[in-house]
Automatic annotation (TrEMBL):
This is YhhN-like protein. One of its GO terms (cellular component) is membrane. It is a multi-pass membrane protein. It is found in: Membrane. GO terms for molecular function: hydrolase activity. The keyword Membrane applies. The chain crosses the membrane at residues 27-45, 52-70, 76-94, 101-121, 127-144, 156-176, 188-206. Keywords: Membrane, Transmembrane, Transmembrane helix. It comes from Grimontia celer.
Amino acid sequence: MLSWVAVCFSGLLHINAAYKGPQWQFYLFKPLTIALMMLIGVMGGEANSYTYLILAGLAFSLVGDIFLMLPKDRFIPGLLSFLVAHILYSVAFWQQFEGPMVWWLPSLIGAASVIVFLLLLPNLGPLLIPVGIYIAVIAQMAWGAGEFWMNAQTQVAAHAFGGALLFMMSDTVLAFDRFKGPFKTSVLLIMSTYFCAQGLITLSILS
C-alpha cells in the first residue's frame, strides 16, 4: 500500500511542477513514477511471460518519457519508444486471450481511432505516417486487452483493459495538444490518465 502512495505522490509532484516548477522536480518525478511501478512489478509480479512483457513495456515507456521531456524536440524517438511499449503490451494481452472474438469491439475502437486520425490529419505534415502507425498499434493494443477482458472476466483482465483505454485517452489528448495547440489543462489530463493507465497495467501483473 505504501508503495502505491509513493507512486501517487511522485506523479502529483510531476504534474504540479509542470505548472508551478521547479524544473528539476518536473524532470525527476515523471520517470521516477514509472520506475516505482516497475519496482512494484518486479517485487510483486509472478515469474511468467506476461509479467516480463509488461515490465519491458514499462521500461520502454520510461525511455519514451525521458525523450519527450528533453529540452530539444525528441518526439520521434519518444514515439518509437512508446510504440515498442504498446507492442510489448499487445503481445502480453493477446497471449492471455483464448476463445471466440467479440467483433463489435474492434469496430468501436477502430472507428474512434479513425475519427481521431482524421481530426489530426490537416496538422500532421511529415509525421502523417508515423502517427498513423502509432494510432493503429495502440488501437489494436486496446483491442487485445478488451478481448482478454471479454473472454476472461477476471480482475487481471479488467485492469489491463482499463489501463489500455486510459492510455488511448492520454495519447489522444497529447496528440491534440501537440498538433492542434496546447491548452491550459492539457498536462493535467495527459499525465493523470497516463499514470493511471500505467498503474492499472502494472496492477494486472499483481492481481
